[in-house]
């Protein structure tokens, strides 16, 4: 890859290294310069630019990042679209992140252009939480480095996966000494049930007996089958020959390990009985606060019960403290992940009168067996948008009827005659409060691909100044446009037959232009001639471009 000053005659196709503002010219870093861009720079009096130019041995940053991210992503891992050489990976299920740290390190050591950053191995994760990010440092990576990374990722299965929690059945035995109050034992049941249910399991049985080796042995033998047996002693285990370990062995089980380098939680006992795990609980397990028992329970619930060696390696990071950044599945509900996928609602505006079409409602016009509006809706459904809202108006019942089998929310705009702004206002009012942003799609733009929406979502990062994301092709801005929630009030205040794009100029400092190789962002169908020509070009549905929705 060439990087440095380029004279304007050599700059077409190069990637701008730094943002430029010269009079009416305002180009951002990373822009691939077109012939018209070069002409505009020449008219602004510039003779050269600092830019990067790829050669045949390079792979562009987005393609390189996507290939590596796809190669490393395993079970229950979702790969986002690439933007500026970055691809984020998110959890597709609740569970534990499982890494092959040696292979992650090996990929990071291939070339300085290739980087992967992850959460720690065995980190508990929630659906949508960010697990890792792949970043190509410059504007491209050597093809050889990308291929080597893919080869390493394929050697032995993907090195990054989420192990989803399984619905465990759990039994609990509590021993008691004279003077122990039933209220203490009752509280232990409540805390244990909450722990187990937090991982999708069920506390199926609870029993009590004297804190005596013989009594506990009999109770263990009488317990109904369960995936996991927990034993909470009235007195802490002090030795491998104490009441709990002795009773487990007398009942036919084995004691694998006693003690763990985690505090609180030091006095945990790890055993086996009938091929199923048995845990002798430390006293801190009666409290809902995080302790070593939680770490072991998480791994058992994820299908990876730790053995003696794994428990002994838990010391690094094993000094636990209740701090706000440590997620806790109990006590006050689920913790909000610090890093998560943005929640974006796709808003499809399908309320217009189609006045330039005469008596025909273009949105209902059949194109290869499906109404025109279905293409925009299906692209939104196939994207990474969390929810899809369709705003109806003119012939609203008919529009809703042809889309009735699709998992969308319908909002009717009775004031559709007031223009596009009224439909935008109606749609924004229905956006879920949990949504961070909205991507406004137009029902008469049938060539917009789901990949375009995904790329806008990938670019969206309000903390980094990318709060409004607009797609561009050959220097021209198109649709759809993604808007951060911070602009909803301004968008709802617009009147007349116009959308929110006029606000873009007022917030240029928060704008991100997202280059896409897709002319569909400029293509709408608003005349009978355009509808006829579009229909003639469509021979069959194209899920790769128009999107396909689950179900």
From TrEMBL:
Residues 171-302 form the MoaB/Mog domain. InterPro entries: Bifunc_Mopterin-bd, MoaB/Mog-like_dom_sf, MoaB/Mog_dom, MobA-like_NTP_Trfase, Nucleotide-diphossugar_trans. The keyword Kinase applies. Keywords: Kinase, Magnesium, Transferase. It comes from the Bacteria. GO terms for molecular function: kinase activity; nucleotidyltransferase activity. Pfam families: NTP_transf_3. PANTHER family: MOLYBDENUM COFACTOR CYTIDYLYLTRANSFERASE (PTHR43777). This is 4-diphosphocytidyl-2C-methyl-D-erythritol kinase.
């Amino acid at each position: 890859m060439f990087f440095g000053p380029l004279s304007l005659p050599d700059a077409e196709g190069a990637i701008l290294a730094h943002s430029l503002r010269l009079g009416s010219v305002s180009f951002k870093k990373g822009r691939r310069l077109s012939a018209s861009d070069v002409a505009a720079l020449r008219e602004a009096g510039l003779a050269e630019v600092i830019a990067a130019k790829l050669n045949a041995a390079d792979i562009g940053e987005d393609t390189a990042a996507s290939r590596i991210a796809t190669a490393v992503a395993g079970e229950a891992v979702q790969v986002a679209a690439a933007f500026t050489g970055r691809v984020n990976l998110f959890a597709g299920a609740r569970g534990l992140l499982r890494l092959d740290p040696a292979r992650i390190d090996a990929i990071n050591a291939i070339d300085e252009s290739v980087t992967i950053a992850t959460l720690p191995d065995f980190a508990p994760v929630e659906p949508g939480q960010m697990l890792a990010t792949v970043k190509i440092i410059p504007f491209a990576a050597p093809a050889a480095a990308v291929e080597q990374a893919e080869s390493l990722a394929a050697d032995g299965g993907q090195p990054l996966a989420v192990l989803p929690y399984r619905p465990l059945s759990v039994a609990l035995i509590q021993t008691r000494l004279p003077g122990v109050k039933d209220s203490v034992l009752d509280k232990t049941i409540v805390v244990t049930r909450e722990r187990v249910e937090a991982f999708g399991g069920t506390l199926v049985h609870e029993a009590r007996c004297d804190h005596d080796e013989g009594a506990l042995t009999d109770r263990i033998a009488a317990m109904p089958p369960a995936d996991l047996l927990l034993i909470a002693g009235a007195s802490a285990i002090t030795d491998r020959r104490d009441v709990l370990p002795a009773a487990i062995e007398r009942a036919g089980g084995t004691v694998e390990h006693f003690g763990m380098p985690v505090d609180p939680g030091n006095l945990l006992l790890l055993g086996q009985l009938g091929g199923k795990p048995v845990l002798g609980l430390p006293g801190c397990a009666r409290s809902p606060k995080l302790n070593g028992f939680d770490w072991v329970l998480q791994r058992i619930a994820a299908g990876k019960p730790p053995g003696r060696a794994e428990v002994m390696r838990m010391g690094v990071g094993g000094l636990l403290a209740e701090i706000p950044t440590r997620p806790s599945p109990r006590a006050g509900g689920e913790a909000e992940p610090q890093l998560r996928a943005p929640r974006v609602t796709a808003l499809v505006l399908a309320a217009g009168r189609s006045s330039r079409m005469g008596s025909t409602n273009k949105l209902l016009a059949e194109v290869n067996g499906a109404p025109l509006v279905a293409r925009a809706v299906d692209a939104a459904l196939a994207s990474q948008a969390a929810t899809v809202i369709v705003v109806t108006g003119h012939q609203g019942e008919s529009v809703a009827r042809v889309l009735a089998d699709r998992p969308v929310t319908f909002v009717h705009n009775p004031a559709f005659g007031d223009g596009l702004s009224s439909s935008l206002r109606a749609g924004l009012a229905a956006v879920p409060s949990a949504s961070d942003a909205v991507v406004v799609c137009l029902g008469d733009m049938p060539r917009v691909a789901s990949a375009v929406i995904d790329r806008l979502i990938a670019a969206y990062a309000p903390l980094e100044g990318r709060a409004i994301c607009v797609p561009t092709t050959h220097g021209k801005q198109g649709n759809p446009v993604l808007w951060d929630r911070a602009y909803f009030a301004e968008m709802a205040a617009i009147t007349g037959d116009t959308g929110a794009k006029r606000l873009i100029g007022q917030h240029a400092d928060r704008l991100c232009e997202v280059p896409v190789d897709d002319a569909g962002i400029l293509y709408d169908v608003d005349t009978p001639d355009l509808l006829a020509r579009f229909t003639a070009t469509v021979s069959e549905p194209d899920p790769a471009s128009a999107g396909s929705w689950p179900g």
